Amino acid sequence: SIDWGWFFFLTKPIFALLHWLNAQIGNMGLAIIALTFVLKFLVLPLAYKSYVSMARMKELQPEMEALKERAGEDKAKLQKEMMQLYKDKKVNPAAGCLPILIQIPIFFSLYKVIFVTLELRHAPFFGWLNDLSAPDPSSLFNLFGLLPWGTPEVGSILALVFIGILPILLGISMWLQQKLNPAPADPAQAMIFAWMPWVFMFMLGSFASGLVVYWITNNMITFIQQYAIMRSHGHKPDIFGNIRASFKKKPAPVVPPTKGKK
Q: Does some domain include residue 261?
């Protein structure tokens, strides 16, 4: 019998749907992309509420800045007033985490599906992707085939560093998705968000390429959905401005001179 894992209630229907889509389309890679569209459509009502809440949070940004100025160093007062602001405006600050939480069980279910789907083994997609159950065979090591030498062995340290085209596209798609919003004001959070796409890029470099295809497609659909919903609520994301800001070198804080001892 097949071990469907913890999320068997998701894995089984995803398995059946992927096989049906593959039978209709005739290409497992396109079937994975079609599956991503179906899954995004099914979770759209929940995601919509989340994106609307995020758009409202952007609208509250001036009021939140005013609260910070009034509260000063009194963090307890600031927290209390911000919670009251959220309550008055009917905004849930944690709603932005909902799309990520939804994706976790879906990702692990699809991960399981890829391992139990025999049709995925040696299933070609397009071009250099000849096996969707294996990692992307291209490699930065030989400039994706432009240089006349082979790629590092799968599982080696070089293979983890010299990743393929798909993981790089994954990192770029995550990075672009982040640019819908300005970087967090908190330096620690900003640093985490700045590194996250590139950490995931290397982490998923050794994963099955079919899974990476799903994640890239999911990121691009999410980008379009979030952009459209933000625009519909009067907030135009300054994507290029946020990109430029991420490359600007922040000035070092001015340290006042210490007074010498008398």
A: no
How far is CA 139 from each of CA 43, 119, 159, 211, 247, rounded to the nearest angstrom?
A: 34, 25, 8, 18, 27
Q: Whole-model pTM?
A: 0.75
Query: Do 162 and 150 touch, CB atoms closer than 8 A?
Result: no
Q: How far is CA 76 from the centre of its chain?
A: 32
What's the total number of domains in the chain? 1
Structure tokens at 194: 């700045």
Residue 24's pLDDT band, with cuts at 50, 70 and 90, is very high
Question: Alpha-carbon distance 154 to 157, whole Å?
Answer: 9
pLDDT tens, position by position, 177-194: 888 776 665 667 678 878
Beta carbons of 164 and 138 less than 8 angstroms apart: yes
Q: Which of 253, 225, 244, 182 is nearest to 49 (CA)?
A: 225
* Cα distance between residue 196 and residue 246, in whole Å: 14
What CA–CA distance (Å, rounded) separates 92 from 94? Answer: 5
What is the dihedral angle through the alpha carbons of 48, 49, 55, 57, rounded to the nearest 10 degrees?
A: -160
Residue 199: domain span: 8-247
Pick 103 or 129 by higher pLDDT.
129
Asked if residue 204 belongs to a domain, the reply is yes
Task: Return the SS3 of 27.
Answer: coil
DSSP-derived 3-state class of residue 43: coil
Q: How far apart are CA 83 and CA 96, in angstroms?
A: 16
Tokens representing 237 are 């994301």
Give the model's pLDDT for residue 172.
92
